[in-house]
Amino acid sequence: MILAVTGLQREARILDGPGVEVVAGGGGLDLRAAGKQGFISIGIAGALAPDLKPGDWVVAGAVRDRDELLPTDRDWTARLASRLPAPRRGVFFGSDTIATTAAQKAALHRATGAIAIDMESHRAARAAQRHGLPFAAARVISDAAHRTLPPAARGGMRSGGHVDLPAVLRSLLMAPWQLPALIRTGLEAEVAFRALLRGHRLLGPGFGGPNFGKLPPDMV
Prior knowledge:
By secondary structure, this protein is an alpha/beta fold. 38% of the residues lie in helices and 25% in strands. It starts with a strand and ends in a 17-residue tail after the last helix.
């Protein structure tokens, strides 16, 4: 059983499948570690590298948590990279807050060299480290480095991976000028979700994790 850590409930529904327990939001990981054979951080992410676009896959060789680099499992990472469509490999930056503006993303890229940012990879890496389990991370870019997220998109996120639709609508009522940017953000997110679904199918049961090669032939 692999523990897949993601951000949104919609991602969790896409990633659910045999041999996998999916948790959205990155909470309660230590309580879920019993009986697991590995942790994977998988879902959507924001780009920090300026050449990445929505729908691109990125695979982490390490995750930066503040000033520390947390390495991923080498063999698992290689399998992810070999199965996903033309993934970019590099360092992910784990953050407890969203990088919402193009200026923030550019500053983080300059300071850390990370190619992508999300809010779960560092938590999953730490939990895997505490329990002595293999860890890997693969994400799909949802918003490019030059994009600044509109306030409605920022304010609609809630713990546990839920979207607060009333909060989004209130933000739009107060600032209707952000509607075009919100629509664009939604369309680019759809590109990412479709890429996530395709990638999930390519990776197969267990996301190519520690039990790869030990699954029954009809599940590989």
